[in-house]
Structures are given as structure tokens and as C-alpha cells.
Write a structure and sequence with these properties.
Elements (H helix, E strand, L loop, with lengths): L3 E2 H10 L3 E5 L6 E2 L1 E3 L9 E4 L7 H9 L4 E4 L9 E5 L2 H12 L8 E6 L4 H19 L5 E3 L3 E3 L4 E3 L7 H13 L4 E5 L2 H5 L8 E6 L15 H9 L5 E7 L5 H11 L2 E6 L6 E9 L2 E7 L4 E6 L6 H14 L4 H10 L7 E4 L5 E6 L4 H14 L4 E6 L9 H12 L2 E4 L9 H10 L7 E3 L3 H10 L5 E6 L6 E4 L2 E4 L3 H9 L14 H5 L1
Parallel strand pairs: 4-5, 5-6, 6-7, 8-12, 8-13, 9-12, 13-14, 14-15, 15-16, 20-24, 21-22, 21-24, 22-23
Antiparallel strand pairs: 1-3, 2-7, 9-10, 10-11, 16-17, 17-18, 19-20, 25-26
Helix pairs in contact: 3-5, 4-9, 4-10, 11-12, 12-13, 14-15
């Protein structure tokens, strides 16, 4: 990595028209690291003061730990280190990160995925395909940044944000380049696009899966237009845009892609698509379909259930074909593909009850999941276990309840990251929107709700457990409280030896938090 002095960043922000003023006593002071976390600061770190909850004490802690200077939208008189004042801290972080890590994103075949539903599954479809091909060529595996986890060639980490802040993101890109990775796939959230976490990042391929109203709250997006327009920013940073023909608002998405990307490629079930999926069938628990394009007309199989996953797989097939990945690698990769917490399917010993654990948590994902299960399991009783998060996306409470009761015979309302509101109030609000509240059972403890939904289900039932996926925590008040994931309770309910065992409750902190 190149060596930089603090004055290099003053010049950078000046050139980017972000510099307000600089109070630099030692312009030659060496910058060896960038961070916004005061706990990470070491000698030579340039510290970024970001966030509405930022406190001056964080800058003072950074100075005590050896920071060479700070970058901020305001000056702190009693913080004893070099200061660079900028007009926009988020843009400054993105510019500084790209500069410091020598624009590592441009040295990777970087694929960005956005959409209301399916980003994680699609990202892992890419990874399985690209890893399959890498193994054949004795190359390094594909890097990934997703809601589930992050792999950059140096470390495999659980993710805390769908798309990390720019300083962290570019560090991952740099690690990938240093580790010899050539391919990298990442989810790109609406928040990342709106708040400049990916500003300046260059995507070889930008994939737009779908769009539906979501993340509308004072903490996220003010309205659907803000959410939608944030998503569309991906195209201005993409060399080739890939658009699903089945997406709502397709005309606007397609037009935006044409205006901003060098090339636009369509994928979907439509005959106008460059990559068309057809003859989609459920065979056992597998999904088989054919793909027709200029280069081939061939079959593919997904061992993850969910007819809607064909569109996600098709996105990966389109991009990988355009990148020169062989057909056999794509077929083998998709056959192996799994995603933690996404369409994880379990059955009881007799096979007459099926439980599906999935991260579905918004209107579009509910519609696709429930409609698909209705089609895949005709004449089965459908049962849903779900809740809604606290303090955000308030519109979900009416939408999820409406979709669930449309398709399901029985509903179990339960805890799903209640935050500062509390699960009782949230469940009651969801219930108030139901047209048939008699179909609904409220069980606040999530483990107990899953257990009851399974053991109380009649034969030939599908129990859909949504919202948390493989997460092993609940957001209660301002804490992340540890708990078992949904699959744990499913397996316990299906294990006759443990069917009557007492359920493990969420740790004692839950009751203490209320």
C-alpha cells in the first residue's frame, strides 16, 4: 500500500470540492489507517467523525489512542490533533477510502446486486457458480459482501450491515486484491446508495432484481420515491446493467438503465428477455427450468425450493455467461447452492409436515414466498409465523398481515426485533389490520411460537417461519439479545425425543429489558 501524508487528504478533499478548511500543524504526518470507530484507532490513523449520534468524546479518545488527525463537518476546539473540516462527511469517507486503498474496486470483477427481495440468495448463487469455476481453474474463490457474511480473502466475518460503510468496504476490496481474488459480488442496499457508502465504486455488472415499497420510515426513506430513486443510482456506477423483465415499474427501471449504463441486458420469463427462463417445474423439493439465450438453450436445477428463486438464478446465469463462465460450471454451481436462513426446508419423520425458514420480511418477499408455496404444495394447509420490527418500516405491519391472511389458513404473530416498541404492541397492531383475526394466534416468545405452529399443525401442512432467517439475536430496546435461530426450534419440534422438552427461552436479558 502506498504511503500517504495528511496533506494528501487535504488536497483530495479540495479537489473534490469537499474541503471547508484545514487546521493542519504537521502536513507531512503519515496516515497509516482510516476508521470512524474510535476503538480501532492506532498510531497514524486518520479518524472520521460521522453519524448523528457522534460525540466529541469519541474524537478525544481517538486523539489519546494516537490518531494523526480527524475529519469532520464541525471543528472541535479542545481536541488536540490535526483537523480537516469538510462539507459532507459521508462523501469524504467514500473519496478517502477509494484514494487510500488505491481504488481496489477497479481491479476486481465487481458485481453489485440491488432489489427489494432476493439480494442475498442471488449473491450466493453468484458465489457458488464463480467458486465452482475457480476450483476448475485453480483460482481463488469469489469474495462476497452480503447481509449474511463477508469474505475478502483474508477473513470470513458475520455481517452487521447489508452494505458496510465506505471505509470498511474499500478495506475489503483491498484485502481481496492483495489475496489474489479476481471476482467479488456484493449486495447494494438502498441506504448504501442514498448515503454514499458506494460513491465512486465501479461495478462491472449492476443487477436490478425487483422493486416494491419497503424501508419507509423516518429512520430510512421518507417515501417510496426516495427508496426507488436511491436504488436506481446503481446504474450510474455500472458498466453493464442487468434488469429483470418481471419487476414492477419495469419501464422506469429499463429507461434509467439505458440512460446510465453502457449496455443493458434483460433477464426474465418474457420472450423479449436476452436470458429467458421457461418450462419451470417443481420436481420433488427441487426446481427445474430451462434457459434460452444466444449462447445456449439448456436445463438448470435448483435444490433450494421457491419458484421465485428462478429469477434470482437467472440473474446469476446472465451475468456469468456474459463474463465467459462455462455452462457446466453454472449448472454445477446452482445445483450445490445454499444460503443460510433462506428457504431452509425441514420435514418431520412421516414427511407430512414441511417447515420453511426464510428471511422474507417485506410485502414483495411475502407475496412471492406465499404464492410460490401455494403453488408448490397444493392442498396443503399453509401456516405463517412472523412479526415486524420495531421503530421502522411501519407500513409492513398492515402489508404483511394482509398478504399472510390472504394465503394462509393460520397465523402465529410473534417477536421480530421489537427494539424500543415491544413485541406486544407490534403484534396487536398487526392483528388490528387483519380481516379475519380469528385465524391469528399471538405468542410473544418466538421459540414457543415456532414450536406451537409445528406441533399444532394438521397433517399435510407447510409452516412458513419468516423474518429472522439464521439470525441468533433479537433487537430489544437498544440491545442485541442472544437467542437460538429459527432452525433450532424447528429441529426440536420435529425431533420426537425432544418434542416435550421445555423450550429454551431467549436469555434472561429479555425480561430484564422490559
Amino acid at each position: 500500500m502506498a504511503q500517504y501524508q495528511i496533506n494528501d487528504f487535504v488536497d483530495l478533499f479540495s479537489n473534490e470540492q469537499l474541503l471547508v478548511r484545514a487546521a493542519v500543524l504537521d502536513p507531512d504526518a503519515e496516515v497509516t489507517a482510516l476508521t470512524y470507530d474510535s476503538k480501532e484507532v492506532q498510531q497514524g490513523t486518520l479518524f472520521f467523525c460521522k453519524g448523528a449520534a457522534f460525540k466529541k468524546e469519541y474524537a478525544q479518545e481517538a486523539a489519546a489512542r494516537g490518531a494523526v488527525g480527524y475529519v469532520s463537518e464541525q471543528e472541535y476546539d479542545d481536541v488536540n490533533m490535526n483537523a480537516i473540516i469538510v462539507s459532507d462527511i459521508r462523501k469524504a469517507m467514500a473519496c478517502a477510502a477509494g484514494f487510500f486503498y488505491d481504488h481496489a474496486d477497479q481491479k476486481l470483477r465487481l458485481i453489485g446486486i440491488t432489489g427489494t427481495k432476493g439480494k442475498s440468495t442471488t449473491a450466493y448463487y453468484f458465489k457458488y457458480i464463480l467458486d465452482e469455476y475457480a476450483a476448475q481453474c485453480a483460482k481463488k474463490p469469489c469474495g462476497i459482501v452480503s447481509t449474511i457474511d463477508t469474505y475478502d480473502g483474508k477473513a470470513l466475518l458475520k455481517s452487521s450491515l447489508t452494505t458496510p460503510e465506505a471505509l470498511v468496504l474499500h478495506r475489503h476490496f483491498s484485502n481481496a486484491v492483495e489475496s489474489g481474488l479476481s471476482d467479488f459480488v456484493m449486495e447494494v442496499s438502498s441506504q448504501a446508495l442514498k448515503y454514499d457508502r458506494v460513491l465512486g465504486v465501479h461495478f462491472k455488472a449492476g443487477v436490478f432484481l425487483n422493486i416494491s415499497e419497503d424501508h419507509i420510515s423516518p429512520m430510512e426513506h421518507s417515501d417510496f420515491e426516495d427508496y426507488f430513486s436511491s436504488k436506481l443510482k446503481l446504474f450510474s456506477q455500472s458498466e453493464t446493467a442487468y434488469v429483470c423483465t418481471e419487476s414492477d415499474h419495469f419501464d422506469r427501471i429499463y429507461s434509467e438503465a439505458q440512460q446510465n449504463a453502457k449496455r443493458v441486458i434483460l433477464f426474465g420469463k418474457s420472450v423479449e428477455a436476452d436470458y429467458q427462463a421457461y418450462d419451470i417445474q417443481k420436481i420433488g423439493h427441487d426446481i427445474r427450468f430451462f434457459v434460452r439465450c444466444k449462447k445456449f438453450d439448456a436445463p438448470f436445477t435448483l435444490t433450494m425450493p421457491g419458484l421465485f428463486n428462478v429469477e434470482n438464478a437467472l440473474a446469476a446465469i446472465a451475468v456469468c455467461t456474459e463474463c465467459g463462465i462455462p455452462l457446466t460450471a453454472m449448472q454445477k454451481g446452482l445445483l450445490k447452492a445454499r444460503t443460510d436462513g433462506r428457504m431452509e426446508t425441514y420435514t418431520n419423520a412421516s414427511g407430512d409436515k414441511v417447515a420453511v425458514v426464510d428471511y422474507a420480511h417485506n410485502k414483495l418477499s411475502f407475496e412471492k414466498l406465499f404464492s410460490s408455496m401455494k403453488e408448490e404444495y397444493p392442498n396443503y394447509t399453509l401456516i405463517a409465523v412472523f412479526g415486524c420490527p420495531g421503530n421502522k418500516a411501519y407500513n409492513r405491519r398492515a402489508e404483511l398481515g394482509s398478504v399472510a391472511e390472504q394465503y394462509c389458513d393460520r397465523l402465529y404473530l410473534t417477536m421480530d426485533d421489537p427494539a424500543m416498541e415491544g413485541e406486544a404492541a407490534i403484534c396487536e397492531q398487526i392483528r388490528s389490520y387483519l380481516k379475519e383475526p380469528q385465524k391469528c394466534v399471538t405468542v410473544y416468545d418466538r421459540g414457543e411460537a415456532i414450536h406451537r405452529a409445528i406441533v399444532e399443525a394438521p397433517s399435510n401442512s407447510v409452516i412458513l417461519i419468516t423474518g429472522k432467517g439464521n439470525e441468533k439475536f433479537q433487537k430489544i430496546q437498544n440491545m442485541r439479545v442472544p437467542c437460538e435461530n429459527d432452525a433450532f426450534f424447528v429441529k426440536r419440534a420435529f425431533d420426537p425425543a425432544n418434542a416435550d422438552a421445555p423450550l429454551r427461552q431467549i436469555e434472561k436479558e429479555v425480561s430484564a429489558a422490559h
